[in-house]
Amino acid sequence: MIFYYLHRNILTMTVGVLKETATETRVSLLPEHLATLKKWKCDILVESAAGAKAFANDDKYSEAGAKIASRDEVLRNSDIVLLINNFSDDDISKLKPGAVVLGIYQPLFNANIIKAWAGKGMSVFSIDMIPRTTRAQSMDVLSSQANIAGYKAVLLAANEYPKYFPMFMTAAGSIPPAKMLILGAGVAGLQAIATAKRLGAVIEVFDTRPAVKEEVMSLGAKFVEVEGAADASKAGGYAVEQSAEFMERQKAKIAESVAKADIVITTAQIQGRKAPILITTSMIEGMKNGSVIIDLASSTGGNTELTKNDETVIHNGVSIIGTSRLAGDMPSDASKLYGKNVLNFLQLIIKEGAVNLNFEDDLVKGSCIAYNNEITNDRVKALLA
Questions:
Q1: Active site members
Q2: What's the predicted TM-score (pTM) here?
């Protein structure tokens, strides 16, 4: 079913930017993004200190044409409300009737939360659900943030690893280069390869998609192949579930590489599912003391049996660091890229200073999770059923 919604205010339409929770350093829009909204004849309300952790103070927002306001004022007066993370119940109670909300809401993991939101009359757009097509690349927040996560994962590993990354030849003897294994050659994995190569590590990469072999090798890493993988070409950059036979062969191959590795970075996730376990406890126990695992899939369960999200677990002398917030370690650039993704999406739903939701557009339809008091995304509906 196709919906079409046109909402015009007598006054100029208002876009609101909210301050995130205490643990989130990013902000939906930086002052540099506001000029585009002004061209679209939008007023902008920004909650006081919304950009402080991203090094954008209120004065900069005011100079760019925004009005600094309280949280209540932003919620009550904005037609479109931007918040990266989930709204509180108190926030929702203050939203303007029929408001459009936009952020990264992970509806396949938060289906019951989205159901509650839908019942409040909100139009919910989760930009992490946008179809991963060529046309949507400029709006792909998962890729823009994963790029940062891959870069920061290697720097985090370098800080935690008690030895050098590059090979050194000194008068006191030679230091061999660190051996790194990267599981998953998506956006985060490829950036991790490039960063680790610049630091001098020797890198092996495993991915179930043979199509990425050429990219991996072009960056100077060795590609570890396991035959018989299920086709992942239509999974939008995610892993897909594999056969039991393939999983056994994969496990044996990964075990070989893990035993040799000083650093392992894991990135494998399946959209809407728990992350696959690729590294068992016995594999970790076979690693050298001082080795480091950075698990970027920790928010969906992790790729190791011992991963805990946002925690470091030390087992048998190996540090397993579960982290899903690395993009927030570079809040300025992370917000810059995220804000540009948001603007590229907003141009699909803002026309002549009004909200214009054309659900014949596959990007608008694909990212809309709730509208008109109903869940509109089929996968979320299935989860709730």
A1: 132, 137, 140, 143, 238
A2: 0.90
